[in-house]
């Protein structure tokens, strides 16, 4: 007989302080230490992913002028980033509704995109809005997140059921969003994305525990899953999400500089209530069980298959040793960090801003004395090819899964049944 429990029983145990909530990482660690974990041993598993998520946008509404003073706003930029006013005209209200894309680049600030803006808002920084009305009047205003009537982050394509590794099979270097430096030719480097075993969809492949309306964490703030995202299909699902920016945490967000421009960073965590044995059996017990496809960078043909166990193996955190810094006359790596995590004093890197570090490995490649991280190599066509970049931050994802666990145990996260099933019928590859 299939073992079962319902959500009310889990909630009662949370209230009583007897519920067992663990992250997928904790489950993996317990199993690898020889523990036998069964359905009875766990009530909720928390999953998460942190990575580059191009399809995010900020949806805002705020007042820029008193009512009746002008008809509507037609052009708006925030910190030099083009925003899209509307669709509501808000005629004669002095209020503007607008959308800012996470990938949009600022015209006034170098290396600054929508992802940078969203992080600064969450950090409580003032932003500058420049708006033009239909009458041609220009209005400038400074504002913080708290001043806004509405500020939410929407994601059109998030937490994809893991991603791919990339290799450049061409004979020339390629600038690409899949590499921080120009991608070296002739199959000499590999980069990859995906948090592997920790990914939400990877742990509930039949969408039994979450669906439309399920509460999730977006960058640490409670939001919800709206439904399947764009370019979804059953084998590679992703989610559309919405969450208030107020309550988000900056360490889960920001911008990542690739050799082909900036990409926004976003983090999602989802609980998986273990409602039956089948759900428990689907939870990933090892990264070796999660496939990672190697694609040719130009053309995206499949050229190989490995597993996330080949790339993730308790090698999550980059370690910096300032004493090992050789204090070179001209440090070559001062500006190479894709997230601006270096703290620079007197022309040398003195420390790492851990709220920005993505544990990507770029610094490790270029200065292996001071920066340490086991990036691994992959056997490909009988050669050992080094991994040079990780575009997902498993360490950050584990932190978010731990935050979700703590919130559930304290009763600060609403565990709810979904209002509808995830439907992929009309999804397109
Ligand atoms: S691992 Fe190095 S290069 Fe990558 S984000 Fe951290 S400090 Fe920057």
Features:
429 residues, alpha+beta, Alpha-Beta Plaits, 14-stranded mixed sheet, 6-stranded mixed sheet
Count the E strands.
24
Overall pLDDT metric = 95
| Percentage of β-strand residues | 25-35%
Q: How many distinct helices?
A: 7
Largest sheet: 14 strands, mixed
- Radius of gyration, whole Å: 23 Å
Helix percent reads 10-25%
Shape: globular
**Structural class computed from helices and strand pairing:** alpha+beta
How far do the termini sit from each other?
38 Å
Q: Which regions are unreliable across 5 or more consecutive residues at pLDDT < 50?
A: none
| Bound ligand species | iron/sulfur cluster
SSE layout and pairing:
Layout: H1 7-16, E1 21-23, H2 24-32, E2 44-52, E3 56-63, E4 73-78, E5 81-85, E6 95-101, H3 114-122, E7 127-133, E8 138-143, E9 150-158, E10 164-167, E11 190-192, H4 200-203, E12 215-218, E13 221-228, E14 239-244, E15 254-258, E16 261-273, H5 277-282, E17 291-296, E18 302-307, E19 319-320, E20 342-345, E21 348-352, H6 362-366, E22 371-372, E23 377-380, E24 383-390, H7 394-409
Parallel strand pairs: 1-2, 10-17, 11-24
Antiparallel strand pairs: 2-16, 3-6, 3-9, 4-5, 4-7, 5-6, 7-8, 9-14, 10-11, 12-13, 12-16, 13-14, 15-16, 17-18, 19-22, 20-21, 23-24
Bound molecules: iron/sulfur cluster (SF4).
Residues 318, 337-339, 341, 352, 357-363, 371 line the site of iron/sulfur cluster (SF4).
Overview of the structural elements:
- The protein has 429 residues and is of the alpha+beta class.
- It has helices at 7-16, 24-32, 114-122, 200-203, 277-282, 362-366, 394-409, and strands at 21-23, 44-52, 56-63, 73-78, 81-85, 95-101, 127-133, 138-143, 150-158, 164-167, 190-192, 215-218, 221-228, 239-244, 254-258, 261-273, 291-296, 302-307, 319-320, 342-345, 348-352, 371-372, 377-380, 383-390.
- The strands form four sheets. Strands 1, 2, 3, 4, 5, 6, 7, 8, 9, 12, 13, 14, 15 and 16 form a 14-stranded mixed beta sheet that branches. It has a six-stranded mixed beta sheet with strand order 18-17-10-11-24-23, with no helix packed on it.
- A hairpin with a 2-residue loop joins strand 20 and strand 21 (348-352).
- The chain is globular.
- 40% of the residues are buried.
- It binds iron/sulfur cluster.
- Iron/sulfur cluster binds at residues 318, 337-339, 341, 352, 357-363, 371.
- Iron/sulfur cluster (SF4) is lined by residues 318, 337-339, 341, 352, 357-363, 371.
């Amino acid at each position: 007989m299939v073992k079962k429990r319902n959500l009310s029983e889990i909630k009662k145990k949370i209230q009583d302080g007897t519920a067992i909530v663990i992250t997928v990482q904790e489950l993996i660690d317990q199993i690898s230490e020889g523990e036998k974990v069964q359905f009875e041993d766990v009530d909720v598993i928390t999953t998460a992913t942190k990575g580059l998520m191009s399809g995010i946008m900020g949806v805002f509404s705020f007042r820029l002028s008193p009512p009746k003073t002008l008809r509507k706003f037609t052009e708006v930029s925030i910190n030099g980033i083009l925003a899209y006013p509307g669709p509501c005209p808000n005629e004669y209200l002095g209020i503007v509704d607008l959308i800012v894309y996470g990938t949009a680049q600022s015209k006034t600030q170098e290396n600054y995109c929508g992802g940078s803006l969203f992080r600064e808002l969450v950090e409580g920084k003032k932003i500058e809005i420049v708006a033009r009305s239909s009458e041609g009047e220009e209005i400038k205003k400074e504002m913080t997140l708290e001043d806004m009537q509405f500020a939410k982050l929407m994601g059109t394509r998030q937490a994809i059921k893991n991603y791919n590794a990339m290799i450049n099979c061409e004979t020339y270097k390629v600038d690409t969003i899949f590499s921080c430096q120009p991608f070296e030719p002739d199959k000499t480097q590999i980069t990859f994305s995906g948090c592997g075993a920790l990914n939400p969809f990877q742990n509930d492949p039949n969408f039994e525990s979450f669906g439309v309306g399920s509460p999730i964490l977006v960058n640490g703030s409670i939001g919800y899953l709206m439904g399947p995202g764009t370019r979804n299909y059953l084998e590679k699902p992703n989610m559309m999400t919405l969450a208030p920016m107020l309550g988000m945490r900056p360490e889960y967000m920001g911008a990542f500089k690739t050799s082909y421009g900036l990409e926004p960073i976003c983090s999602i965590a989802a609980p998986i209530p273990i409602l039956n044995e089948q759900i428990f059996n689907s939870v990933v017990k090892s990264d070796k069980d999660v496939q990672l496809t190697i694609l040719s960078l130009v053309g995206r043909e499949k050229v190989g298959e490995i597993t996330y166990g080949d790339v993730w193996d308790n090698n999550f955190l980059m370690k910096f040793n300032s004493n090992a810094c050789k204090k070179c006359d001209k440090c070559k790596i001062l500006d190479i960090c894709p997230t601006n995590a270096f703290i620079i004093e007197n022309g040398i890197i003195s420390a790492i801003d851990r709220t920005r570090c993505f544990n990507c490995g770029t610094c490790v490649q270029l200065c292996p004395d001071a920066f340490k991280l086991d990036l691994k190599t992959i056997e490909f066509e009988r050669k050992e090819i080094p991994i040079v970049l990780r575009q997902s931050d498993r360490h950050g994802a584990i932190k978010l899964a731990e935050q979700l666990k703590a919130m559930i145990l304290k009763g600060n996260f609403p565990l709810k049944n979904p209002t509808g099933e995830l439907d992929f019928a009309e999804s397109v590859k």
